[in-house]
Design goal:
Layout lengths: L11 H12 L15 H17 L7 H14 L12 E5 L6 E4 L3 E5 H6 L3 H16 L2 H7 L9 H10 L4 H11 L11 H18 L5 H19 L10 H4 L3 H11 L9 H8 L3 E2 L7 E3 L2 E4 L4 E4 L5 E4 L4 E5 L2 E7 L6 H10 L12 E6 L2 E12 L2 E13 L2 E10 L7 H4 L3 E2 L2 H5 L4 E7 L6 H5 L8 H8 L13 E7 L2
Parallel strand pairs: 1-3
Antiparallel strand pairs: 2-3, 4-16, 5-6, 6-7, 7-15, 8-9, 9-10, 10-14, 11-12, 12-13, 13-14, 16-17
Helix pairs in contact: 1-2, 1-6, 3-5, 5-9, 5-10, 7-8, 9-12, 10-12, 10-18
Length: 491
């Protein structure tokens, strides 16, 4: 969560409007999948592009970003959307969320976290080709034409507004607020559209000379990462708002992708890929704060807090989301004029355009030496009553942060331990936050999965993390001379 990026700069609402505009380009007939990018599509994409970059931590630069751009442009031209590589803008995003997407106008994106999960260039081309397939088939336009809500709300918003708040206007608006700045945004497509994008991606891979089976292997890695994340976070299912889960059922799509690629061959460029991503930032960027277990630490803002037991966090450019069975919360900031009461009232007022939400009362307190205040209100939603709580902290005369929490009625105390854990950190504590990076190593004689996994910069699930990172099955071993990835602490 970067203070330099205002929470107001790239809201879910504005992104939804922009991409809804992309979906309704021209208002006329939708071009078929072989038609080049239209002028209207290019204009809409150009308008949405800066907002998407802001939402996902910005575009990375340097040799790694140039490599991703090169591979992406090479695969995108296979679509026929543009007859030159320059027709496409391919961005490597500084995000720790596994995500990839593309929007009309030839704008293609993948996060560095998703790239780090890949194991060869063909997989990278496959993921980017899949997203280009959505654009070529004009899936967003078709979703809009079918009068289905073209929204950037991901799975977290669906869970929040559908289960906790119901399908009310309030539920949708507050659900959008909780996703704002969270990097959990994604365009949602139907299962048939996902399969069509897979098929187009495989076609592009084959035309470009890549091994089309890479589509299946990267989907398998995504499914395995999804399951590992669920296990590490203590969830009983693998439903998370990331590329692997918002694109329906990646595990079952593996077999479909394999059948489509049957009999096709091509290059993977594994060693080239691994050498080009060596040193890639992995996990959270300290400039946006880092999650370590149940702790969120922001070395630049000099603050930290702890999520409640049984909850998991997802970091974003301007917000941290906290998710659990008994509620959802977001940690973020808003403009501050030195008055915590006014700050809290404004947060409530901005939650809904349909209801004038106000806290029943505002209580002042002190949390670990920080001036603080909190207020809550009970509202009727589609699935019954819920409690909405805002807990704010003053860090300076012109700077405050807050939690927005939503729980079933009577369960607001689920977040009490988190509210009371907010604290300043020292310069030494901030200096101890060291980012993780991908380190590509060559397997030596005597190395094993277990011995290599001990180098993983995690206190838990080292072997499982190593296997998923390298696309290794539970009984697969490493061989001398093979290049593998480990995640280490870097400077």
């Amino acid at each position: 969560m970067s203070r330099s990026k205002s929470i107001l700069a790239a809201t879910t609402a504005s992104l939804s409007l922009v991409l809804a505009g992309c979906a309704a380009v021209g208002g006329g007939p939708i071009p078929d999948s072989s038609a080049p990018i239209t002028q209207s599509e290019a204009q809409m994409g150009a308008e949405a592009h800066p907002q998407l970059l802001s939402e996902f931590g910005g575009a990375m630069t340097g040799s790694q970003a140039q490599y991703v751009e090169q591979v992406g442009q090479n695969i995108a031209v296979q679509s026929g959307l543009g007859n030159a590589r320059s027709a496409f803008t391919v961005s490597l995003l500084n995000s720790s969320v596994n995500n990839a997407f593309a929007i009309p106008g030839g704008y293609v994106y993948t996060t560095r976290q998703l790239v780090a999960l890949m194991n060869n260039e063909a997989e990278l081309a496959g993921v980017l080709g899949h997203e280009v397939g959505h654009v070529a088939a004009r899936h967003s336009q078709r979703r809009q034409q079918a009068a289905q809500r073209n929204t950037l709300l991901g799975a977290a918003g669906a869970i929040l507004s559908g289960i906790l708040l119901g399908n009310s206007g309030l539920g949708q608006q507050v659900g959008q607020t909780l996703l704002q700045g969270s990097q959990l945004l994604t365009l949602r497509f139907s299962r048939s559209q996902e399969l069509e994008a897979d098929e187009l991606g495989i076609r592009y891979l084959n035309q470009a000379g890549y091994d089309p089976r890479a589509m299946a292997t990267v989907l398998n890695s995504l499914a395995q990462q999804n399951a590992l994340d669920a296990r590490v976070q203590g969830r009983d299912n693998a439903t998370v708002p990331e590329w692997a889960s918002t694109h329906p059922d990646p595990a079952s799509r593996v077999q479909t992708a394999l059948s489509k690629a049957q009999g096709m061959t091509g290059v993977t460029n594994r060693d080239t890929f691994l050498s080009r991503i060596d040193g890639l930032l992995y996990g959270d960027d300290p400039q946006q704060g880092v999650i370590e277990g149940r702790e969120f630490i922001h070395p630049e803002l000099r603050l930290a807090f702890s999520a409640p037991q049984g909850f998991y966090m997802v970091n974003g450019t301007s917000a941290v989301t906290i998710n659990g069975q008994s509620g959802r919360a977001q940690f973020t900031l808003a403009p501050y004029n030195g008055d915590l009461n006014s700050y809290i009232s404004t947060v409530f007022a901005n939650l809904s355009t349909e209801q004038n939400l106000r806290p029943q009362s505002i209580q002042r307190t002190t949390v670990n030496g920080l001036p603080a205040a909190y207020g809550s209100t009970r509202v009727q939603s589609g699935n019954g009553q819920v409690d909405v709580t805002v807990f704010a902290y003053e860090f300076a005369d012109d700077r405050a942060y807050h939690f927005l929490a939503i729980t079933p009625a009577g369960q607001a105390s689920s977040f009490n331990t988190m509210f009371s854990s907010m604290r300043r950190i020292s310069a030494q504590q901030a200096g101890n936050v060291i980012p993780r990076v991908v380190d590509v190593v060559t397997v030596r004689s005597g190395d094993t999965v277990a011995s290599l996994a001990r180098n993983m910069a995690y206190d838990d699930n080292q072997v499982a993390r190593f296997r998923v990172l390298n696309g290794l099955s539970s009984d697969e071993n490493v061989t001398p001379g093979q290049k593998v990835k480990v995640v280490v602490r870097g400077r």
